[in-house]
Amino acid sequence: MSFRRGVVRQSKFRHVFAQAWKAEHCLDDVRVSRVTWDGPLCAVNPKFIAVIIEAGGGGAFLVVPISKSGRIDQSCPTVCGHAAPVLDIQWCPHDDNIIASASEDCTVKVWQIPDGGLSSPMTDPIVTLEGHSKRVGILAWHPCAFNILLTAGCDNMVCVWNVGTGELVYQLADAHPDLIYSVSWNKDGSAVCTVCKDKALRIIDPRRGAVLKVREKVHDGTRPMRAVFLTDGKILTTGFSRMSERQLALWDTKDLSEPMAVQEMDTSNGVLLPFYDPDTNMVYLCGKGDCTIRYFEVTDESPYVHFLSLYSSKEPQRGAGFLCKRGVDVNKCEIARFYKLHERKVEPISMTVPRKSDLFQGDLYPDTAGLEPALLADEWIAGQDAPPLLVSLSGGYAAPPSKHKDTLRNKPKLSSQDSGSGGATTAATISSTPTPAPTSATKEVEEETLQPRVTTRETDGNTERPRREDEMLSELLAEMKALRAVVLAQNQRIELLERQLARIEDGDV
Fold this sequence. Notes:
Blueprint: E1 17-20, E2 27-28, E3 42-44, E4 48-53, E5 59-65, E6 70-71, E7 79-82, E8 86-91, E9 98-103, E10 107-112, E11 127-130, E12 136-141, E13 148-153, E14 158-162, E15 167-172, E16 180-185, E17 192-196, E18 201-205, E19 210-215, E20 226-229, E21 235-240, E22 246-251, E23 261-264, E24 272-277, E25 282-287, E26 292-298, E27 305-312, E28 319-322, E29 334-341, E30 345-352, E31 368-369, H1 377-381, E32 390-391, H2 403-409, H3 411-417, H4 422-431, H5 442-450, H6 452-459, H7 467-505
Parallel strand pairs: 2-6
Antiparallel strand pairs: 1-30, 2-30, 3-4, 4-5, 5-7, 8-9, 9-10, 10-11, 12-13, 13-14, 14-15, 16-17, 17-18, 18-19, 20-21, 21-22, 22-23, 24-25, 25-26, 26-27, 28-29, 29-30, 31-32
């Protein structure tokens, strides 16, 4: 079916275009895993790229700094502590050095990566979570609560862990009669949605262990499905029709009797992996084995899911990693970045909105989720809910200092001194996390980015700043304030002109 509509719809993302990076900026000679599991096989954050790779006699994944490019040597150290192939990896949203891995050996392990990357093979995790009786293939960190991790395995169980103590805090053993295909948290982490081999979509409260709503036969096909919670509470699913056509559907959680929108795409047999950007309300669909990435915008106006465009290349993708908004280049109007997995290569692909101005485009970059968690694990377990703490991307994101991250970074040293203590001792240190500081305001973030040299000088013991630096700093802040005022005025002017243009196009003038 055609995705085009008769009337041109107004959207600032209509002209998003994708561009692959040049060959010299790719990672070459990466032996991407051939495991038969419909996962992305890659996880990315603003510091590191992690890729599940082929490994003899166990499971391993590669972790390299995000700035690295070129050939990956065969002797490059890996994280290789699993006894069977790794199926899924996920970075912690509240610490860019913490990553969890799930494996066919029925365990989930949590690792801490040093700031500069690995210098030697890593075999000892900081926490090992054992509770599944069959292979574990799905990981999902809580979006707002620190140290809460959800896992799902081929034993049809969903487990929620407190990584800080290594405890299994909730277990849902009877909610799913068959294999679980995907799990997604909602915005504040009060519920999850799951899709299962029985073709049903379930909305579950993990703390009560209760299935809140069920929708049978979300998609009629027998192939695997995926589901993701959107910011406004709706659910987007991908699957197959009875005629094996790939489908995209949007569901209102208030009424699951009928989908709000259904779009059929093609008859390819690759599972569609949805990647959702909550800031722009855009969904990117990457099919395993496809040569294309489709992207859509979800709005409140019919038909609700609007096809924007697609990126096409010659090489099929084995998987893909999606970079969170904190890592994109705001100076180039980059709104998303993928890391496409080839057979032996990792290729970055940037999604960009063309703009002529070099100023920060505030309409493209609303405040996004930062590193600071809104809740501690115990607070969430006690029943509290809170939306993510947001930070501004103006001037580029700078991570604020966090006390609990320092505690985590000291963890491996304690483990190496007492290697026989196991995961429980290690987890105890993580659980002794103080209450996180509130998120920095926009102005504070900007000031931090403007004074790296001053901060360094103060920590070195020299508390006196030269008068000249103070003057330069005040001049820069005044200039930024003036520029911000110009940007706001121009944005208002642009909106006025766009409304006038819309009235002309609609024939109102």
